[in-house]
Every structure is written in structure tokens, then in C-alpha cells.
Amino acid sequence: MGRTDAVGWDEDGAWRTAAWRSGSGARAPRRVAVADDRMAADLAYKLVCEGTALLWRGDYHGARQLLAALGRRVDRKPPKQGATPRESFHLYRQARTRRARVLGMLLVPLETAADGSWAVPLRRAPRVGEACVEAYGAPPGPVGALTLVSLRELQGVLGAHEWRRKGVPIEALGGARIHPRHGVFSPVRGEYVDLVARAPLPRAAGAGSGKEAEPGTEAGPGKEAGARPEAGADGGGAPGGEGPGGLTAFDIGTGTGVLAAVLARRGVGRVTATDVGEQALACARENVARLGVAQAVEVVRADLFPSRETGRADLVVCNPPWLPAKPTSVLEQAVYDPDSRMLRGFLSGLGERLAPEGEGWLILSDLAEHLGLRPREQLLEWVSAAGLRVAGRLDARPEHARATDPAAPLHAARAAETTSLWRLRHAEDRPAGEPAPPAVPLGPASDER
């Protein structure tokens, strides 16, 4: 995954070369200087700011200390505040990109060890073999072959390995754990998962009336705290005909597979989970197997919707990246969606893949609206243009630290943020007697803030 190139440098009067690896797709540095514990942090900062990468040859913990010192120097100049939230966001992104570029210039060597595993040939270096195999695969080349990576990326690889080993407890799964892989977004913000666990399931195509099954891991009917329909909506979803076992569902962009697992635990009979990333596909398959829902969930490679041979689904769920901006790493692809590509693709294709009386659940934060990146009216226009209508909406307020910390970047927008599950149906699928919606079906929500 990522980018692999070659990098060269002069060391002890000899020219040396190694493979270059970057999960974020960064190019190999043009200039590399050797550094160790004798190098002062101010000199190191000057060199990396001028575009010279530093290949660390000293103690591993010394490299960690230098990286922290470089971070403090970068952070002395906080991002500027723009005249508008949109301008402040772009200035913040520019500052974060510069920070990542500067800190990414401190490099450490990886080598192929005698046992064929990855190793860091530095004093007091941790064991990295298992973590690097998870992120990069088997090491290339013979014993002693070198690969250079940024220390910051290696720390991310090691951190991802710990996430995968320990897992993330998911309340909507009764406390069962999801184990993310490197490069796959971890479900640490639980509000979007809780919304999928609370939302009333639609009726299976052709089913009659009946009670929805009450699985132990969902909120259950009448427990939908924060749920409220939009003005003019038809309220709660229809219950499943003979229980949710007759429902079919698509989970678009499944990532870790957490939403597919929640649907399966709620009793949905068949879930097809899609993604394009190899790490995400492997991660989702591992998680659904570990959670014992593999018989109900099939994980397939697809850009958005599964193949047409799969047919239509009673429920189509999508939690696309929330902000229309360009990602700078594999992990950021779960947060930033250039030109709202995935969001627009989901909406435009939903109608023809949705069964009669089925629902599409779009889980989306309104942070982009508060930052001036995408107005609510634009979202609703896309819904209407796709031949869809809003049948209802469930809201949740985020509880992460940035939402409550006044010192956090973009705090005003984050403090006002709401994550919503939009229940979408075919425009022509409406209760008898309900009038047709206007061209833009609903105005901005009157959230209480």
C-alpha cells in the first residue's frame, strides 16, 4: 500500500541506496543527511524545513525525542484564523499539511532480518515485525536489505497494530470489539454506529405488517433518544414484515465492517458490505468472522454498490467521508471526500438499487455546513435530483474532546456539529394522501444549539 520508490544518500564517504516506502504517497526525499543523538533540535528543524530529510542512526528513543522537539517547533506558529469558517478551515488544512511534511522528514531504517521479518536496526528499537507485515506485507529483498520510512509513519503502524490487537469496544454490539487494521478508519466516534443501531428498520419488500425483532444489542422500539422526523416526514420506519430476517441490506464503504455487523446483530437476514481498499476488505472479513455474523454478511470489492446481479436491497446504508476536501493519506480518505464524490455517487445510484418501500440510510455530519464547505440546500437538491425524498432523520451530538474543548481548532464549528441519519426513500413511495414535496423538499433543520 502507499508509495514505493528508491532513495539515495552519502554516508561515511560512500553512496548508499534503499527502498522508500510511504503509506501517504509522499515522494522519496531528494536530499538525505545522516543524523544521530549529537544533532541539536534547532539544526534538525532548520534542515527539515529546507527540505533535507534526516536518516536517524542513533538511539531509537532519541529519535522519538527529536520528533517531539520538531513538533513543538512547528506548533509555535498556530494556524491563522480566516475571515470566514471556510477560510479558517483551509488555513488549518494548510498548517496540518505543512506539519505532516516537516515531521515526515525524520526517517528510520527498516531491514530484512535474518529470520525474514522486518526489524529496525537501531539501539533500543521495538519489535516491529508483526506490525509492519500487517501494514506493508512481507519485507522485500534479501537479509539486510534496507527500506526507509518516516518515524511518524512507523509510529502510526505500531499504533494501528495495538488497535488491531486490543480492539475497540462497540456499545451497539453489546461491548464486543471491532479490530481495525492499519489504514482503516477506527470507529472511535460512536455516534454514527449508535444511530444505525437505533433507527427503525424498513419493511422487507412485499412483507406485511408485524413486529420488528428486539435484538439485545439495539436500542429497541421506543428508545430512540434524539430521534425526530423532519417537518413533513412520515415519522418512523415501517416494521419488518415477519421480523427483520427477511430484509436484505447493502453497507456501502464498509471499512471495518462495523455497520454491517450491527445490522446483522439486529437480525437483518442478508448484508452485502462493499469497499475498494484491500486492507478494508480484509479487515471487514476478519471482524464479521470474529463477531459470528459471517453467515449473514458477505464482504465484496466494489466501488460503491455491489454488482447488479446482487439485485436491490430493502436497506442501503452509507457513512461517506464527511468533508469535501482532498485527503493527504490513506486514513484521511475516510474523512475527506474530494468534491463530495462518494456522497453524490451514493445518492445518484441509490434509487435504482433500492427495493420498493426500502430505505437508504445516509449517515452524515453537518460539520461541512458549519465550515461553509457544503450548504444544506445542496445536499437536499442532490437528494431531490436523485428521485428521492427524506422520510425522517435521527440526530446525535458528538461527544469527542474537540467538540467540547474551546482551544481545539475550528472549535465553533465542532461545537455546533450534529451527526444525522437521513432516512431516504423513493420520491413516489409515500403514504396515501401525503402531498408531493417541493423541488427542494426540506429547508435547513432547526437544530437546537
Short characterization:
This protein is of the alpha/beta class. 29% of the residues lie in helices and 22% in strands.
Total domain count: 2
Helicity level: 25-40%
The number of strands is: 17
Strand order of the largest sheet: 10-16-17-15-14-11-12-13
Specify Rg, calculated over alpha carbons: 24 Å
Hey, roughly how much beta strand do the residues contain?
15-25%
How do the helices and strands follow one another from N- to C-terminus? Answer: EEEHEHHEEHEHEEHEEHEHEEHEHHEHE
InterPro entries: DNA_methylase_N6_adenine_CS (IPR002052), N5-glutamine_MTase (IPR050320), SAM-dependent_MTases_sf (IPR029063), Small_mtfrase_dom (IPR007848)
Protein name: Class I SAM-dependent methyltransferase
GO biological process, one term: methylation
Keywords: Methyltransferase, Transferase
What does this protein look like?
Helix content is 29%, strand content 22%. With 449 residues, it is an alpha/beta fold. The chain has 2 domains: 161 residues, no CATH class; 258 residues, Rossmann fold, CATH 3.40.50. The strands form 3 sheets. The chain has an 8-stranded mixed beta sheet with strand order 10-16-17-15-14-11-12-13, sandwiched between helices. Helix 1 crosses helix 2 and helix 4 packs across helix 5. Keywords: Methyltransferase, Transferase. This is Class I SAM-dependent methyltransferase. Pfam families: MTS. One of its GO terms (molecular function) is nucleic acid binding.
